[in-house]
Design goal:
By secondary structure, the chain is an alpha+beta fold. It is 36% helix and 25% strand. Among the domains are: 205-395, D-amino Acid Aminotransferase, Chain A, domain 1; 399-519, OB fold (Dihydrolipoamide Acetyltransferase, E2P).
């Protein structure tokens, strides 16, 4: 556990992505099997220990220390694992942190029923010191919060063993933790795992922002709308169907109607959207599905999801990725015609004789859920990642609004000592109503300034959340805004970020809910 505890601590304070990749890579090379596989699964969010729940951990610590002391400490620290690691009585057995392996921990916690889980977890915590307990609880709950994730874990694996990242992406979902065959292949100790006829993820092709449209030859590119949904890959092979998100995580359970309706073996790249009459509902209707392992019948009925198809990677077992875009789109059109039109349709190509005409389409799209345009080279193959000159995204300019800071919450990892998550609102009948939350867009110096401002203008504490004077105006940039039941204002922003701190503007002159609602139309 000591090596895993060191890894988590290093990741929490790593200065950037490359530093995190290097840390994970060294750890994967140095650790033995199966410990490195279990650690990789934890970093990727794929280690499932269902018997260990936050309620169980809270119950155990309240048996050992004053419950009021725990609650006050948790309010101040803000993180359950860190609070329990600090408060748990005793310093553990000598050498236990080094001797206890990840494999032993997973074995102890993966099989117990509800009756055995408290005793097993308590025994492990009693053996460990503060750092070991913190690592154990982070591992058990899956709530690492160290700036890692599935995508970063796979990148680190590929870099650590100098294997193609695209191969790792494709093989990942065909191998279960602790990924023995994947490590054997990557280290040269075994063959490449046989994917066979499995519905596996393939890495997405991505687009560069279009900075200078006048430099392109429009005749060489096909244009289509860029929709504000969830990019997804629908895969059916060998009679099995799965749905994957852009980062390679399986999301079939959240959108079961898509996998159920995919009746033809193929790999489709497209956008998940919610149908609303003859149009498309806001992203917030789609967001309700994210992270769900079971979707209620009412949600399936009231928010019907469909896929707007962009590209065809495989037709049956035939790999089309080396074929030009125009050929793939012709094959896609024929294949989509075989699928349920309520669940699958095709993103149409747009006709425009000049970039001026395209610009006019971009600025006045027929649907507010359209973010802009995609330009794709007609002869381009489908390749993973971003390749210069092949695909471009030409988004509309960001929307902006002046909002008033209402609440702030401390961050995690490197930001754990700063108030860095900010909730802001707009005016409605003399009252401020929340319209969004942002935790990026500002510089490190601006973060320090905001943190000081929150601490000196705090009017109430609600656990880790500080309520502040309603006097600071923030200019917020966002991609779109739509109806939402999550906020009392009835609105929620898409991709909000703080673009400017407006100390010169009185809070009473900030924007209204009505003004923001007008932007949604």
């Amino acid at each position: 556990m000591r090596a895993f505890a060191d890894l988590l601590e290093g990741l929490a304070f790593a200065p950037g992505r490359n530093a995190r990749l290097d840390l994970i890579g060294r750890w994967l090379r140095d650790m033995p099997d199966p410990d490195r596989g279990w650690g990789l699964a934890a970093l990727a969010g794929e280690l499932d220990l269902p018997a260990v729940k936050p309620a169980l951990i809270r119950g155990l610590i309240e048996e050992r220390v004053d419950p009021l002391l725990f609650r006050l400490s948790h309010d101040y620290v803000g993180d359950l694992a860190e609070t329990v690691a600090l408060l748990w009585p005793g310093q553990g057995a000598d050498g236990a942190v080094a001797q206890l392996s990840l494999g032993q921990v997973v074995e102890a916690l993966s099989s117990p029923g509800r009756a055995d889980a408290p005793a097993r977890l308590s025994a492990l915590l009693d053996r460990l010191d503060e750092r070991g307990r913190h690592a154990l609880l982070k591992l058990a709950t899956g709530n690492l919060r160290v700036g890692a994730g599935a995508r970063l874990a796979r990148m680190a694996f590929a870099r650590a063993f100098d294997v193609p990242e695209s191969d790792v992406e494709e093989l990942w979902h065909g191998v279960e933790p602790p990924y023995g065959p994947l490590f054997h292949w990557a280290t040269g100790a075994g063959p490449r795992p046989d994917a066979g006829a499995q519905p596996l993820f393939r890495p997405f092709m991505l687009a560069h922002p279009l900075e200078a449209p006048e430099m392109l030859d429009l005749a060489e590119y096909s244009a289509e709308w860029k929709w504000d949904g969830i990019r997804a890959m629908a895969v059916r092979a060998g009679g099995q169907a799965r749905l994957y998100s852009r980062d390679g995580n399986e999301i079939s359970a959240a959108f079961p109607e898509i996998s159920a309706a995919q009746s033809v073996d193929a790999v489709l790249d497209g956008e998940l959207l919610v149908r609303a009459g003859d149009g498309v509902a806001s992203f917030n209707a789609l967001q309700k599905r994210l992270g769900r392992k079971r979707v209620p019948g009412a949600m399936l009925r009231d928010s019907p999801v469909f896929m707007r198809c962009y590209d065809l990677l495989f037709d049956g077992r035939e790999d089309l990725r080396d074929r030009p875009l125009d050929e793939r789109r012709a094959r896609l059109e024929a294949l989509v015609g075989q699928l349920d039109p309520q669940r699958f349709d095709m993103s149409p190509a747009l006709e425009a004789g000049s970039f001026a005409a395209l610009s006019a389409l971009r600025d006045s799209p027929p649907d507010p859920l359209i973010e802009g345009l995609m330009l794709k080279r007609r002869d381009a193959p489908y390749v993973s990642g971003r390749r210069a000159g092949l695909w471009y995204k030409w988004k509309r300019d960001a929307l902006r609004a002046d909002c008033v800071l209402m609440y702030a919450r401390r961050g995690h990892g490197r930001r754990s000592s700063f108030f860095s998550d900010f909730t802001f609102g707009a005016w409605s009948d003399g009252q401020l109503l929340p319209v969004g939350k942002a935790y990026f867009g500002f510089t490190d110096e601006e973060l320090k300034w905001l943190d000081r401002w929150v601490r000196t203008h705090m009017v109430a504490r609600h656990g880790p959340v500080a309520e502040v004077e309603k006097s600071l105006v923030l200019e917020v940039a966002f991609d779109s805004i739509g109806p939402s039941a999550r906020h009392k204002s009835g609105l929620a922003m898409r991709f909000p970020r703080i673009s400017r701190i407006r100390t010169e503007k009185p809070a009473g002159e900030a924007d209204s809910v009505a003004a923001l609602a007008a932007m949604a139309r």
